[in-house]
Amino acid sequence: MSDLDALYQELVLDHGRRPRNFGRLEHPNRQAAGHNPVCGDQLQLYVDVGDDGVVRDVKFEGKGCAISTASASLLTQAIKGRTLAEIESIFQAFHETVTGRAQPDEERLGKLAVFQGVSRFPTRVKCASLCWHTLMAALKGADAPVSTE
Amino acid sequence: MTFDVERVRADFPILGESYRGKPLIYLDNAATTQKPRAVIDAVSSYYETSNANVHRALYWLGARATDAFEGARVKVKRFLNAASEREVIFVRGATEAINLVAHSFARPRLQPGDEILVSHMEHHSNIVPWQLAAQAAGAAVRPIPITDAGDIDLDAYAAMLGPRTRMVAVVHVSNALGTINPVEEIARLARERGVPVLLDGAQATAHVAVDVQRLGCDFYAFSGHKLYGPTGIGVLWGRERWLREMPPYHGGGDMIREVKFSGTTFADLPNKFEAGTPDIAGAVGLGAAVDYVTALGFEAIAAHEEALTDYALERLRTVPGFQRVGEPRRRGPVISFALGDVHPHDVATVLDMEGVAIRAGHHCAQPVLDRFGLPATARASFAIYNTRAEIDALVAALHKVVELFGR
Ligand SMILES: Cc1ncc(COP(=O)(O)O)c(C=O)c1O
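^ thats the input. predicted complex w/ pyridoxal-5'-phosphate below
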């Protein structure tokens, strides 16, 4: 597989074109905004966390490239029904994968392993990880918008 | 002299580089241009034969360095058709030149309620310095509207010029849209009302002949690195009468006549604005760049670049979803575009894999992209060494983008 095909796999193109869980949540109890000043991409994440600490629902809105849109879309699917500790573990595995520090841990990542190809494109790592940094800010209740810079 | 692009290409060592087996196709010339051998050699030869600090050393090498540095100033003076070398201030680039004028010229003249007019298509470096000066004085920066085609609305501009207008600052050639603005007319309208004009020439000097006296402006700013010269060096040209009145921008060595704790007197022009050891090698490299483009001639440069841009537009229209942003009356070799729903970032990545370097983003001109309702565009910008074959490679790579994202 060429580097380009590894980056833009069918799953990524599909989620880039037709993002899942796109839109607003009526009553989120966590939310955060992310911004990538290099490309002007914007992202809003809305999360509803139950009293048991499990993510009940999550949605996102924004404008971005195929990688950042697909990453946010797959993120929403990956974290629904998960606890904060589980999400942190997924994020860690994701981060190691997209930065090329480790082979993807398929067990923790599931579909997110598709972003392995990003590691060969250093300029695109931020596109894939913006939504995750934004999510961590939302879950930790940070107020300031997240920026990739 | 006929323009031979292959001979020009042979002057640019970097064009021999390749990556993953694909030759470099450099179409990001509005960001920075590549450097001809003559410039690279001038810089290294300066360090090999002439390096010393300027203006102070009492030995022969210092005189040689000073001659090289001041020789570069004379070249720039001729290049711009300035009235004298005293009007040519070496700075780090267009950004610093504009900040200097905003700080030392505009700010002391501003009263609460005064206005500075800038166009809606400015680079951030021709917006933010004016905002800083205006904020400090309680004045306002007002945008001159532009049309859907990407031209400055001259009627609106004329109507905005009023008793509170203290300054007009406009880009000569737009980096985001490619527009060549009617800057003579813009300067004339301001002059009739006694309003000084700064032109941001960052994108102009590599493509059009600049004669500051004919343009009728008061200040002209440009960067060496967009004119085939080194990074870190640029020029502020200003009318001597203004430069004399203006207080220094930076204080330090080289810009003084006499320093006393009871009060310091300043050096004459241009030294008053050149505190500290300047980028001597950069200035020498810029002098070589000026010689290089002058020898090619702007008529030949413009003919080559216009033909290339026309060819590119004709070929790009064959790419499904290609949509040009801005169709100004006169344009430089810059094409900003959208490609259907594909994000410019994704376009640039696919092109990069084909060896084609373009820019994707807001081009440091967010207001103009907001004006067109776009967060980003893709931009291809050409220079003297680009060829039709490279445009063909760009078009072929864009077809690949369409194939990948359209399936
Ligand atoms: C129109 C315009 N003005 C100003 C600048 C700033 O130039 P520099 O970064 O060299 O100071 C640029 C650079 O992109 C530009 O395109």
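Residues B 93-95, 123, 125-126, 171, 175, 200, 202-203, 223, 364 surround pyridoxal-5'-phosphate (CB under 6 Å).
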